[in-house]
Automatic annotation (TrEMBL):
The keyword Flavoprotein applies. Residues 1-24 are annotated as: Disordered. Residues 1-11 have a biased composition (Low complexity). It holds the Pfam family GMC_oxred_N. This is Glucose dehydrogenase. It comes from Aspergillus saccharolyticus JOP 1030-1.
Length: 517
């Protein structure tokens, strides 16, 4: 985790008004994701890019095979991906699990480049004062204690974990590159050059030592592998003539292949509510940052995390509104829609500027993050223009479906009830006017989200969807020598934070590529 003094990061540049809500009640987020507005605490800005909330290894529901079923390839099941997750990980298990003899060693790796630690074993003391009260909160939500939600059964609440150890974050840059890898920084791929149905190479704009940009053509000897992420890979494909015919025609791009590039865009919507408590020195920003028993720099300031299915009324709505195959997936046993965790400070991944409430963030405030991990809404990534320097138009259609709104709003209501019922916490909602406090109707939740605490938690995926745009070896349909290997290929939302699944995808795709050489 890195704490830095300064102003909040840039927000998403959106078109149109300031509200998240579209005319149909769905949220709108169009524009360039250029960073995020992170919540601040006592003048410290939390840079969420460096805060790994979870190194979650659990794609979707227990031992999920939905992705594998959809693409008819068992290599994309949870079981098949597990060896690649393990390869990435060095696990520091919870001391509580160790003491109880409940270690799930088979589901973890012990010599990978990413250090994954549980709150109670992260190299520095993290005896957060609210641990027992927040455990009570998750129990009041109706969650059962789960031993290890990273072992294929994510339902319930469990001790938090993240990819930090001794206060240092592990991330992909920690992987050792082979001697035969050449890395170019300050270089932007404009497009893939395709001739005769074969990807020949890429056009790259490089910024030279003198700061002047130069366009260069890089020829591929074997193949081109795009890993520009779920928002940029579709843009590059579209600029290359690979995408929906209508989108290409709109920009007069010479069409090469008609594929649903940029469709099926999905992201995890999140609503954040803020709670003032009257306990001293209980959250980050009150009291000392480091002491013998409590070190706020040791990792993300939280204790527990829970995953749960959507409530009964949402499931009934889903039955009425979703096509049968989608409803079958939504309601499959163990399938989870909701994630909740409390961060012991005020965090906001919202996209509006300026910061919402006077006095932000206030002392003695914590955040409940309510996250929809299995949305049914789908959006688009499209081109703004044919200028490669222009960002794409991102329209994830967050909460466009009434099913998604129902699931997330019900979660917000449940959390509000539970947090106020925790003994001795005396939690009072913070940052809203008195008239709104206590009103948890849909309209009141939407009023909250339009002014503070709503957006995405930055898990975009699905825009180069496996089975639609790429095959199950990540090869773009109808174009030889071209693959996409990034979050864009994930065909269904996963009940996970995406860092670890991406490592799994990358490792498995690398093996596929090597096997084909
Ligand atoms: C603010 C934020 C916080 C997050 N927090 C967490 C978390 O706590 N835990 C977690 O598990 N996940 C988290 N995620 C999600 C996780 O980071 C992403 O899911 C993951 O990085 C996606 O990997 P990727 O390889 O698909 O894309 P990326 O990691 O985005 O990699 C794409 C790369 O391509 C480069 N690129 C893009 N366009 C071009 C181009 N035209 N030419 C050349 N290079 C290009 C980009 O600069 C980038 O380096 C977070 C994401 C964000 C944005």
């Amino acid at each position: 985790m890195e704490l830095s003094v300064g102003t909040a990061g840039t927000g998403v540049r959106r078109r149109g008004g300031q509200s998240h809500l579209g005319e149909d009640g769905g949220w709108r987020l169009r524009g360039e994701l250029s960073g995020l507005h992170a919540g601040s605490s006592c003048g410290l800005v939390l840079n969420l890019r460096l805060l790994s909330i979870t190194h979650t290894l659990t794609p979707s529901h227990p031992r999920s095979h939905q992705w594998a079923e959809l693409v008819q390839d068992p290599r994309w099941s949870w079981d098949s991906l597990l060896p690649y997750f393990k390869k990435s990980e060095t696990w520091f298990p919870s001391t509580e699990l160790t003491r109880q003899g409940l270690l799930t060693r088979d589901a973890h790796g012990f010599d990978g480049p990413i250090k994954v630690s549980h709150v109670t074993n992260s190299g520095r003391p993290r005896n957060y004062p609210l641990r027992e009260k927040i455990r009570q909160f998750h129990e009041l939500l109706g969650c059962q204690h789960a031993v290890d939600i990273n072992a294929g059964q994510p339902e319930g609440y469990a001790e938090g974990f993240n990819s930090t150890y001794e206060g240092r974050r592990s991330y992909a840059a920690g992987y050792v590159l082979g001697a035969n890898v050449t890395l170019w920084s300050r270089s932007w791929v404009e497009k893939v050059v395709v001739e005769g149905g074969n990807a020949q190479g890429v056009i790259v704009t490089r910024s030279g030592e003198d700061g002047k940009p130069a366009r260069v053509y890089v020829e591929a000897t074997k193949e081109v592998i795009l890993s520009a992420g779920a928002q940029s890979s579709p843009k590059i494909l579209l600029l290359s003539g690979i995408g929906p015919a209508a989108d290409l025609a709109l920009h007069q791009i010479n069409p090469i292949v008609d594929l649903p590039v940029g469709r099926n865009y999905t992201d995890h919507a999140g609503i954040f509510t803020y709670w003032a408590i009257d306990l001293p020195n209980a959250v980050l920003g009150d009291g000392e940052m480091q002491g013998p028993d409590l070190d706020w720099t040791a990792g993300l300031p939280y204790d527990w995390i829970s995953f749960a299915p959507a409530d009964g009324s949402t499931r009934e709505l889903a039955r009425q509104l979703l096509p049968p195959d989608k409803y079958r997936r939504y309601s499959a046993a163990g399938k989870l829609q909701i994630e909740v965790f409390i961060v012991y400070t005020s965090v906001d991944t919202c996209t509006r500027t300026p910061p919402p409430a006077p006095g932000w963030p206030g002392r003695g405030v914590f955040t409940i993050a309510h996250i929809l991990v299995d949305p049914v809404s789908r959006g688009t990534v499209t081109l703004q223009s044919t200028d490669p320097a222009d960002p794409p138009i991102l329209d994830p259609q967050l909460l466009a479906s009434p099913v998604d709104r129902s699931a997330l709003y019900e979660c917000v209501r449940d959390c509000a009830r539970a947090v106020q019922a925790v003994e001795g916490l005396n939690a009072v909602e913070w940052g809203v006017e008195d008239a709104l406090r206590g009103d948890w109707s849909d309209e009141a939740i939407e009023r909250r989200t339009s002014r503070m605490g709503a957006g995405t938690v930055f898990h975009p995926s699905g825009t180069c969807s496996m089975g639609e745009v790429v095959d199950s070896e990540c090869r773009v349909f109808w174009v030889e020598r071209l693959r996409v290997v990034d979050a864009g290929v994930i065909p269904l939302p996963l009940a996970a934070h995406y860092q670890a699944p991406i490592y799994g995808i990358a490792e498995q795709a690398a093996e596929m590529i090597v096997r084909g050489l």
